[in-house]
């Protein structure tokens, strides 16, 4: 499951090259940046990030493929696009697989991440970065499946519970 098959680790940029490119891009848009910054500073804001009170994390590990769910490929060859069609969502230009009409109706309240990729053929191990934001050490990645340990990083939902305890009647997050 690679996001960009043309990417090669040998083609990556050095930190100096990245900063050089980033600085050039920033220089081209500096006036717009200051306009946006001034506009956001003048608007009334609550000081918080977003308005979400809870998270439902839909991570269908081992479930249906992405082209049947969140990322349909209607122009792909028949053997790639799957047997189900696509449906429009509440967001113009965003389509889901036809089996998700209720999610499509709520798409303006969802965040769909389609840019995840990994280079680990072991899908159990490859889930760790998606759940914790951290890779396994190289020595662990070379083995098969492995038991949990005290040195594992916490799931982002556990971090959310720690940083923002919710009320006892409704959890802060649920993973499906």
Summarize, please.
With 176 residues, the protein is mainly alpha-helical. 34% of the residues lie in helices and 7% in strands.
Walk me through the structure.
By secondary structure, the chain is mainly alpha-helical. The chain folds into three domains: 9-44, no CATH class; 62-110, no CATH class; 116-176, no CATH class. The chain is built from six helices and four strands, in the order H-E-H-E-E-H-H-H-H-E. The protein has helices at residues 15-42, 78-81, 101-105, 123-132, 138-141, 156-163; strands at 55-57, 86-88, 95-97, 173-175. Residues 1-10 have low confidence and may be disordered.
Key features of this structure:
single chain, 176 residues, mainly alpha, two-stranded parallel sheet, two-stranded antiparallel ribbon, globular
Number of strands: 4
Basic shape = globular
Tell me about the biggest sheet? 2 strands, parallel
Low-confidence stretches: 1-10
- Strand proportion, as a percent range, falls in 5-15%
| Straight-line distance between termini | 20 Å
**Sheet with most strands: strand arrangement:** 1-4
Kindly report the average pLDDT value. 73
Furnish the topology, listing elements before pairings.
Blueprint: H1 15-42, E1 55-57, H2 78-81, E2 86-88, E3 95-97, H3 101-105, H4 123-132, H5 138-141, H6 156-163, E4 173-175
């Amino acid at each position: 499951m690679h996001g960009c098959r043309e990417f090669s680790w040998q083609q990556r940029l050095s930190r100096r090259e990245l900063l050089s490119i980033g600085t050039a891009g920033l220089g081209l848009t500096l006036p717009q940046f200051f306009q946006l910054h001034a506009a956001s500073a003048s608007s009334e804001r609550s000081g918080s990030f977003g308005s979400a009170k809870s998270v439902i994390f839909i991570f269908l590990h081992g479930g249906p493929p992405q082209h049947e769910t969140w990322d349909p490929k209607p122009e792909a060859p028949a053997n790639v696009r799957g047997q189900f069609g696509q449906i429009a969502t509440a967001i113009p230009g965003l389509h889901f697989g036809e089996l998700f009409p209720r999610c499509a109706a709520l798409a303006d309240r969802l965040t769909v991440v389609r840019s995840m990729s990994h280079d680990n053929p072991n899908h159990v191990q490859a889930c760790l970065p998606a759940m914790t934001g951290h890779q396994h050490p190289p020595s662990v990645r070379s083995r098969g499946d492995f038991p949990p340990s005290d040195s594992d990083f916490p799931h982002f939902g556990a971090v959310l519970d720690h940083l923002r305890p919710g009320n006892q009647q409704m959890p802060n997050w649920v993973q499906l």
